[in-house]
Amino acid sequence: YIALLEFTQINYSLEEIDKAIVYFSEHYNEAINVDAYAKQNHVSTNWFIRNFKMYTGTTPKQFILQKRINNAETLLQNKQYNIKEIAQIIGYDNPLYFSRIFQRTKGISHPNIQKHIKYKKGRADQLYLSVLPSCLQILSTFYIYLASNISFHIL
Question: Are the C-beta atoms of 118 and 77 separated by less than 8 Å?
Answer without folding.
Answer: no
